[in-house]
Amino acid sequence: MTIRAQSIPARHYFPEHAHRWHQVVYAISGVLTVAVERRSFVISPEQAVWLPTGLRHRVGTLLGAEFRSLWIADEAGQGLPESPTVFAVTPLLQALIIEVAEIEAQGGPRRLRRPRHASDPRPTPARAAPPGRPPLAAHRRPGETL
Predict the structure, then answer these.
(1) pLDDT-based confidence at 63, cuts 50/70/90?
(2) pLDDT tens-place string over residues 14-56
(3) In terms of pLDDT, which residue wins out, 9 or 125?
(4) Which of 17, 23, 77, 88 has the most CB atoms around it within 10 Å of its CB?
(5) How far is CA 21 from CA 46, 72, 91, in A?
(6) For the chain, what is the radius of gyration of the CA atoms?
(7) Residue 43's beta-bridge partner residues?
(8) Do 98 and 66 form a contact (C-beta atoms < 8 A)?
(9) Burial letters for 14-50: b for 16+ Cβ neighbours within 10 Å, e otherwise?
(10) Is 137 helix (H, G, I), strand (E, B) or coil?
């Protein structure tokens, strides 16, 4: 999982696009509009939208928002809805999203993984970016007005 935090100014949106990973669209403040499959969802900080891999979508805001995007590897989303879904964001989930975004902004925690052999007590550093992490260059900045 990777998270992206961004402020979106009023009357801006991300042009229609699709990803090779699942996405959770969330705003910690403001209101977002998510257009996908001829449907449109308007979400506040109490809600988020689940977008399965490959769906063409557009995210924007009329009044501005603090946007958080969680990118989830395709294989990790097995068993989750196969169509766009709005779901409630509990105070705990909101706090976790905010904290993960802050950690990511600071370069992330030093991650450790188990040594190859259980008899070797020394931990080895994990890679900084997990396999399949979406490249930031693949995303566009807010652009045209609504």
Answers:
(1) very high
(2) 999 999 999 999 999 999 999 999 999 999 999 999 999 999 9
(3) 9
(4) 23
(5) 23, 6, 25
(6) 17
(7) 32
(8) no
(9) beeeebebbbbbbbeebebbbbbeeeebebebebbbb
(10) helix
b or e along 89-98 (b: 16 or more beta carbons within 10 Å of the residue's beta carbon)? beeeebeebb
Residue bearing tokens 């909101």: 94
Of residues 49, 52, 58, the one with CA closest to residue 86: 49
Question: What per-residue confidence (pLDDT) applies to 78?
Answer: 81
Q: Is the pLDDT of residue 12 over 50?
A: yes
**In 31-80, where do the E strands start and end?**
32-36, 39-43, 47-51, 57-61, 65-72
